């Protein structure tokens, strides 16, 4: 559904064994540089279009539910799937999101802001650093790439569930129903498990269980 930053990180984990750098770097440097390159490759969209204005309005609504300590930047762009949380403080959103129903816009934006509120970028960086504490060179990455890939994939699943819970909490406080929330997945298209995302069905089941328990979904209640 929503392409998040973790997808790029898992891809990096799976190919580390084949990586060779002219100048040795730490894994944190590699991840940061990769994200900066991705951001630079995204072309800014016209922020005055009807689609962009709708996205900005939805973003402002969701930001009212963000912890005050989080400064977040919205970038409306061309060349990204739907939306992506990047570098722990940027939400890049494709201009086409402005054509979607408001409920879907709100959930997409709240989901990505959930990644930021839960500090998922930092968590993933720490996982990579655990497996590659030294320089990113073949002798340090060949033996750990498969384990790192598995751990990164497992962590991204947990992050997706957390971001969904955050988004559901935001929409619930806005007065939306559980059916409103789960209908987002049908609108965007159902899909199976991938290396970075649990299936739509699993995500819907998790949201229904969370809703019935009435568990708070703010970052302060997270077990991570």
Helical content (DSSP H or I, runs of 4+): 55-70%
Number of helices: 9
Derived from helix and strand composition plus strand pairing, the structural class reads alpha+beta
Number of domains: 1
How big a fraction of the residues is strand? 5-15%
- What's the pLDDT, averaged over the residues? 85
- Secondary-structure element order, N to C: HHEHEEEHHHHHH
Largest sheet: 4 strands, mixed
N- and C-termini, Cα separation = 23 Å
Overall body shape: globular
Tally of DSSP β-strands = 4
Question: Low-confidence parts, pLDDT < 50 over ≥5 residues?
Answer: 1-8, 13-22, 220-224
Strands ordered across the widest β-sheet: 1-2-4-3
- Computed over alpha carbons, the radius of gyration is 18 Å
Question: Would you kindly provide a written description of the structure presented here, covering whatever features stand out?
Answer:
The structure is a single chain. The protein has 224 residues and is an alpha+beta fold. The chain has one domain. It is 56% helix and 8% strand. Strands 1-2-4-3 form a four-stranded mixed beta sheet, sandwiched between helices.
Task: Give a brief outline of the structure.
This protein has nine helices and four strands, in the order ααβαβββαααααα. The protein is α+β, with helices and mostly antiparallel strands.
Could you give the topology of this structure?
Blueprint: H1 5-15, H2 27-41, E1 43-44, H3 50-63, E2 73-78, E3 83-86, E4 90-94, H4 102-117, H5 120-131, H6 138-141, H7 145-173, H8 178-188, H9 200-213
Parallel strand pairs: 2-4
Antiparallel strand pairs: 1-2, 3-4
